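Good morning,

Attaching, inline, the backbone tokens for the sequence recovery test we're adding to the shared suite. The designed sequence is right after.
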């Protein structure tokens, strides 16, 4: 090609465009994949939060239902058994049978203390009996240590609350789930998916609230089967959070750790209002609830709060004023090996292989074009000399300018030699073209080596004689009788090419012999690159035994010329390797004979190599397959 840089420039521009497009597609796909992954992780987090809230509400619901089902009179240390819901809070008369309250002993965790706030503002506890009731309690129902511990907790509770605050607190503790929550304030500036998620979270909270209240009301009705007098009204337990008193010593932890978590209800008996409830052990409840959701949210935390109807309840419990901070959810699987990214890696690999294949194809096409251009120029130069000789000699003979008979005979002999050289060149080119098209054109038969040699011996000897050299046949009877599988025409062409090269390059040698040997060992040396036929010549051959057992027989063509250098041997079997300049500065030829000969040998299942172990001249070894069974 005249300007191969045009191809390189076009290929570079196409590569840049392809890589730019792939880069843009990759960035866009990665960005979308990252956004999708974030959305998927957020959805997974919300689902885990939803399940965690249901678990925690289900875990705490039995405790609240149990406290909600207690009759109002059990908040006294002892109560008269015979009154049965009638005048239970009236003064105890001597002789009445008293029943100990099931709350007399310290409750098990997670309840710290049961309490009752009277109409006059006096705060007492069934776990802290007074007067002669304490003596009765210590007689077998509880221990002085338990009473002292309950009294200490009651003192701490008294420091936190008063009746007005207590009465107002339960109303703020719970949001009515029957009233739809209106998303205002911060939600107004959020995107539609976030607002939709907030609405779903609010609906979920309301569903959990309805489920919890339904279960609590059912448990209360089942537990209270005794008829309730009309002057007694028992409310439902409501959760409430009481802040830590300023004068109370710190209990450790954060500021909210000192807040008290209570369950309280209003009870009206004979027109007098009481507040009954229990003080919950917040650290124990927190540990219990977190233990239920460790598999869903291993980094979750809980804190007390007061739900605001204007806020969304996405992470608040319906049973207690507790808000869930879910933390982060560990990523499942490999964060990198997503289907989109694997597809991108595959696409990049395919693009890289395609670009490499196109680059190799273009490089091969350019190289082949250059080699063929060199071959055409070499053939042109090779044809110009004999054609000039033909024209000059024929004109001289035609015009009668050569009267001497001997000189005329020499001119005719020269014309015949040039004609044979041209015929040999054309024959090589046509044979190589047939091999390139995958059509060897010959027929492989079982033939004796003697018959092969006899067929082409005269032609080989005449070519050697034209160059002033002598062809010497070295073979024994056994070698001549050996039968091989070969194409006789191909073998003749190979041997003619080898002898012709010996005549060209060894014509100036002192020893004019060209040896054609049958038999002998093939030489082997360091392994060459099997993918490069030209490198087959760069072997330093060494004797190898057992060639007959390997099923091959060898013909060796050897001369006594200057030999072949290592640099020339690397491209010895490469086709179109001789340019016009090389042809002008060297012996005649286009550099196609050895490449053709090697391909013809391989087409017959044989081989053609250069034996570098020969120090004097050049030696080529032709291997032919022996007849099957020998």
């Amino acid at each position: 090609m005249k300007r191969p840089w045009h191809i390189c420039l076009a290929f570079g521009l196409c590569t840049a465009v392809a890589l730019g497009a792939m880069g843009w597609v990759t960035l866009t796909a990665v960005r979308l994949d990252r956004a999708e992954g974030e959305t998927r992780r957020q959805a997974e987090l919300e689902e885990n939060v939803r399940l965690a809230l249901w678990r925690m509400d289900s875990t705490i619901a039995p405790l609240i239902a149990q406290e909600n089902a207690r009759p109002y009179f059990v908040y006294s240390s002892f109560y008269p058994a015979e009154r049965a819901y009638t005048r239970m809070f009236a003064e105890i008369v001597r002789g009445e049978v008293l029943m100990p309250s099931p709350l007399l002993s310290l409750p098990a965790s997670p309840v710290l203390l049961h309490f009752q706030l009277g109409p006059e503002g006096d705060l007492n506890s069934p776990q802290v009996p007074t007067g002669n009731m304490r003596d009765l309690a210590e007689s077998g129902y509880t221990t002085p240590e338990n009473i002292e511990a309950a009294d200490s907790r009651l003192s701490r509770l008294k420091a936190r609350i008063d009746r007005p605050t207590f009465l107002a607190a339960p109303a703020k503790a719970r949001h009515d789930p029957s009233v739809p929550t209106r998303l205002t304030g911060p939600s107004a500036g959020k995107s539609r998916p976030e607002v939709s998620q907030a609405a779903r979270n609010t609906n979920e909270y309301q569903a959990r609230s309805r489920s919890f209240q339904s279960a609590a009301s059912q448990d209360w009705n089942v537990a209270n089967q005794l008829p309730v007098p009309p002057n007694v009204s028992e409310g439902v337990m409501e959760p409430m959070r009481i802040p830590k008193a300023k004068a109370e010593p710190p209990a450790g932890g954060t500021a909210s750790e000192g807040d008290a978590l209570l369950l309280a209800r209003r009870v009206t008996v004979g027109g007098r209002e009481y507040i009954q409830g229990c003080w919950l052990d917040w650290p124990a409840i927190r540990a219990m609830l977190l233990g239920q959701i460790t598999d869903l949210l291993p980094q979750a935390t809980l804190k007390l709060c007061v739900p605001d109807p204007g806020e969304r309840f996405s992470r608040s419990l319906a049973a207690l004023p507790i808000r869930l901070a879910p933390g982060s959810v560990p990523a499942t699987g490999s964060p990198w090996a997503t289907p989109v990214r694997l597809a991108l890696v595959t696409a990049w690999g395919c693009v890289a292989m395609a670009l490499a294949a196109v680059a190799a194809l273009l490089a091969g096409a350019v190289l082949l074009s250059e080699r063929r251009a060199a071959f055409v120029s070499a053939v042109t130069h090779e044809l110009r000399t004999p054609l000039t000789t033909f024209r000059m000699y024929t004109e001289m003979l035609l015009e009668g300018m050569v009267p001497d008979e001997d000189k005329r005979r020499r001119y005719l002999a020269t014309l015949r030699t040039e004609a044979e050289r041209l015929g040999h060149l054309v024959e090589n080119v046509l044979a190589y073209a047939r091999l390139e098209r995958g059509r060897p054109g010959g027929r492989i038969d079982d033939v004796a080596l003697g018959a092969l040699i006899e067929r082409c011996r005269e032609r080989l000897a005449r070519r050697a004689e034209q160059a002033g050299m002598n062809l010497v046949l070295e073979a024994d009877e056994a070698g001549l009788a050996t039968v091989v599988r070969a194409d006789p025409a191909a073998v003749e062409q190979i041997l003619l090419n080898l002898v012709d090269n010996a005549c060209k390059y060894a014509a100036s040698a002192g020893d004019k012999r060209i040896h054609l040997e049958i038999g002998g060992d093939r030489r082997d040396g360091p392994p060459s690159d099997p993918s490069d036929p030209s490198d087959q010549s760069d072997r330093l051959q060494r004797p190898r035994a057992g060639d007959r057992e390997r099923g091959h027989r060898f013909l060796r063509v050897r001369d006594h010329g200057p030999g072949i250098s290592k640099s020339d041997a690397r491209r010895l079997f490469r086709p179109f390797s001789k340019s016009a300049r090389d042809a002008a500065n060297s012996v005649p030829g286009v550099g196609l004979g050895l490449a053709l000969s090697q391909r013809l040998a391989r087409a017959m299942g044989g081989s053609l190599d250069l034996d570098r172990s020969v120090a004097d001249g050049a030696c080529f070894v032709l291997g032919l397959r022996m007849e099957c069974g020998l």
